[in-house]
Design brief:
single chain, about 80 residues, mainly beta, 4 strands
Length: about 80
Amino acid sequence: MVEEVPMVHEVEIDPDEEIILEGEMYKFKPGIEKNFISRWLQLSTRSFRYYKNHYHSICYLTRPISAIPLYAIEIVRPF
């Protein structure tokens, strides 16, 4: 029997959640010139979060651009 995994994962952002690692990353922006966009990443005990900048990661009212629960990352397997 094949185990079905839900495609949509809800992530609750807890301001008291421990941040294991955080820092700036440069994302490539395609176009005529080589451009890179600065983004802020956080790895917490429950999720991997991707923000527009460091300020947005500090402001609790701002949601991340993307948040992936760690259990969803753990279930990825190579083919």
